[in-house]
Amino acid sequence: MSMILSASVIRVRDGLPLSASTDYEQSTGMQECRKYFKMLSRKLAQLPDRCTLKTGRYNINFISSLGVSYMMLCTENYPNVLAFSFLDELQKEFITTYNMMKTNTAVRPYCFIEFDNFIQRTKQRYNNPRSLSTKINLSDMQMEIKLRPPYQISMFELGSANGVTSAFSVDCKGAGKISSAHQRLEPATLSGIVGFVLSLLCGALNLIRGFHAIESLLQCYLLVYYTGWRNVKSFLTFGLICLCNMYLYELRNLWQLFFHVTVGAFVTLQIWLRQAQGKAPDYDV
């Protein structure tokens, strides 16, 4: 029998579950799919906004929009058009009910658990596809899926729930440079953005005055991207900024020297504060 089994609403940036339906079936296959839910929730920021993962007897489909992902588990023979129409309804209702400020500042798992009432009602409707209400706008969804089909996530790409290494991990094992290049940093803060702009400003001022701007550009790079020995490089870059300003002591007044050195110190602090993302918390989604 084709049916929707469960659904979840998850924040994209950190995998925090915001709401979820109740899983009535507790079979071995369902427990395995819960592990895939967890793994997908940690990779949402790296995946396209519309995806499907086939796990054998079950399919996991999800869509992401405005920093929130809507994920559902259904049997393998459940029609794609109904699955994504169901997710589209969840998305529209959630956006209408909760503003982005609430979802961005949520700190507790399942803090919008009351949304489960809507998930359950909608799931019941879509598990009875002969009802007229579920056929509304299905032609539009069919056309959208035909023009932009969901990205098919492979098990090799995701990595198995039993600990088999993902494709990314296999490629990076023993290749530290590649791993560093793909390491994600924590989300940028307002002070980090201000530091980035000020560093660019210092670089532009240096170029206008005919000086080099490599140290300011290097600070911008270290603030945005992860590299090996990143903190050490940031302190060495700040030392270079101090040395350059000592060399330019006779060409700049004290206020100019103070501005460039202060900006360099501020950006170095922001680089140190913005560390690589660790393992995503296990929210038991």
TrEMBL record:
It is found in: Endoplasmic reticulum membrane. Gene3D superfamilies: Longin domain. Residues 8-119 form the Longin domain. The keyword Transferase does not apply. PANTHER family: LONGIN DOMAIN-CONTAINING PROTEIN, VESICLE-TRAFFICKING PROTEIN SEC22A. SUPFAM superfamilies: SNARE-like. This is Vesicle-trafficking protein SEC22a. GO terms for biological process: endoplasmic reticulum to Golgi vesicle-mediated transport; protein transport. It holds the Pfam family SEC22a_C. It comes from the Eukaryota.
